[in-house]
Amino acid sequence: MLWITRLSGFFSAVMTMVVLWPSFRTFPPAEAIRSSQMGGPAGPHLPLSFRRAPVFRNARECGVPGQSRPGICDRGLVHVAITVDVVYLRGSIAAIHSILQHSRCPESVFFHFLVSDTGLETLVASTFPNLNFKVYYFDPDLVRGLISTSVRQALEQPLNYARNYLADLLEPCIGRVIYLDSDLVVVDDISKLWGTDLGTRTIGAPEYCHTNFTRYFTDSFWSNKQLSGTFSGRRPCYFNTGVMVIDLTKWRRAGYTKMIERWMEIQKRGRIYELGSLPPFLLVFGGHVAPIKHRWNQHGLGGDNVRGSCRDLHPGPVSLLHWSGSGKPWLRLDSKQQCPLDVLWEPYDLYLRSH
């Protein structure tokens, strides 16, 4: 388990780097499994290239895998869903790398990549030759007519809404999935997050009940008793949808995708929120979220949605670092304007710079 205390300034970030560095470099041996989902059309030329990641192997306690690749419905797999697009590709690659690096059983992790661009499958396969994964095409037209303008244009991209459709996109045999944003790195064993007890809840996420929940919706929403009454009998708290454990079986049974779409339709008719894909989740699940320890989403490292200013970590241990907000570590590092904590993202960056 990794313990990181609150950091302030560059010196503290460097010291944290020293603490984490040993776990960046070691991993127990075993055999690797090649995914059946590799290959595919080359697609258009991509502006980025990446060096090949090392092979990550299961620890002995995971069991030695057989010679054949695991099936997507095999029991014992940890299912992780991530969106992959050209703009955030560098972040997605780093996120995958970090998960494999810190997993005790990396060969038991199955990735589900949600894409709206072609050609990315081949790039991922060449970067992680032994990765178990499948690519799912998400049609932007499915949500384009439901998306409203937001405080930041990046939040209006259709692929941000693909998480709403995981229960439809993924195979029916998959009853649980971890959804992760592309601007984060995992510095702990992902199976610990996978083992979250959801109880009767459909989703689990770290909640932040000290946050002013009312600010996520407009005055017109709160003044409309029919709309704001949706929270009647609930005690909703803010949660970040970039890290969620989702029970897909319960989701499908309850039809939550349609509920989220209905709130998006209401938003189109009369503005009730300003912040992209988050508020519909708050409306549907606020007050009904299985709590997960805050260590699994140290979010906000990308600053706010306008300036992307530097931020410190929340107090306490860290299992996942999340650069939510407008400032992304790869852009700040390239521009030589990095924040102190951006150095914690850099070891997972597999980007090949041209000289």
Q: How many E-type strands?
A: 11
Task: Quote the distance from N terminus to C terminus.
Answer: 39 Å
N to C succession of SSEs: HEHEHEHHEEHEEHHEEHHHEEH
**Rounded mean pLDDT score:** 85
The low-pLDDT segments are 1-44
Helix content, binned percent: 25-40%
- Please identify the structural class as seen in this structure: alpha/beta
Main pleated sheet: 7 strands, mixed
Rg is 20 Å
Q: Helical segment tally?
A: 12
Strand content: 5-15%
State the strand order across the main sheet: 3-2-1-4-9-6-10
What coarse outline follows from CA principal-axis ratios?
globular
Descriptive overview:
The protein has helices spanning 9-25, 89-102, 120-127, 141-144, 166-169, 190-194, 219-223, 225-228, 248-254, 256-269, 278-285, 329-334; strands at 78-83, 109-115, 133-137, 176-180, 184-186, 203-205, 207-208, 238-239, 243-247, 289-291, 320-322. It has 355 residues and is α/β, with parallel strands linked by helices. The strands form three sheets. Strands 3-2-1-4-9-6-10 form a seven-stranded mixed β-sheet. A two-stranded antiparallel sheet has the order 5-11. It has a two-stranded antiparallel sheet with strand order 7-8. Helix 2 links the parallel strand 1 (78-83) and strand 2 (109-115). Helix 10 crosses helix 11. The two termini are 39 Å apart.
